[in-house]
């Protein structure tokens, strides 16, 4: 009999992204993706939590770039 051990695999836990429009971002993450707000700092940032414990931080910024 083969001895099978569980292997712990890495996962993405949290990310932060810069956004130009917090209200549009809030609507998208709530209405389209179904995420719940973890914390909100009006005019500054919003943090969303997924069903697996991951956090997406959205930070208001005028300088948003796509790389």
From TrEMBL:
<dbReference type="InterPro" id="IPR037523">
    <property type="entry name" value="VOC_core"/>
</dbReference>
<dbReference type="GO" id="GO:0004462">
    <property type="term" value="F:lactoylglutathione lyase activity"/>
</dbReference>
<dbReference type="InterPro" id="IPR029068">
    <property type="entry name" value="Glyas_Bleomycin-R_OHBP_Dase"/>
</dbReference>
<protein>
    <recommendedName>
        <fullName>VOC domain-containing protein</fullName>
    </recommendedName>
</protein>
<dbReference type="InterPro" id="IPR018146">
    <property type="entry name" value="Glyoxalase_1_CS"/>
</dbReference>
<dbReference type="InterPro" id="IPR004360">
    <property type="entry name" value="Glyas_Fos-R_dOase_dom"/>
</dbReference>
<dbReference type="Pfam" id="PF00903">
    <property type="entry name" value="Glyoxalase"/>
</dbReference>
<dbReference type="GO" id="GO:0046872">
    <property type="term" value="F:metal ion binding"/>
</dbReference>
<keyword id="KW-0479">Metal-binding</keyword>
<feature type="domain" description="VOC">
    <location>
        <begin position="11"/>
        <end position="67"/>
    </location>
</feature>
């Amino acid at each position: 009999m083969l001895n099978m051990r569980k292997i712990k695999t890495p996962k993405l836990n949290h990310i932060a992204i810069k956004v130009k429009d917090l209200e549009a971002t809030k609507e998208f993450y709530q209405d389209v993706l179904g995420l719940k707000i973890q914390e909100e700092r009006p005019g500054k940032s919003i943090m969303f939590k997924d069903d697996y414990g991951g956090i997406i931080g959205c930070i208001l910024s005028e300088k948003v770039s796509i790389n």
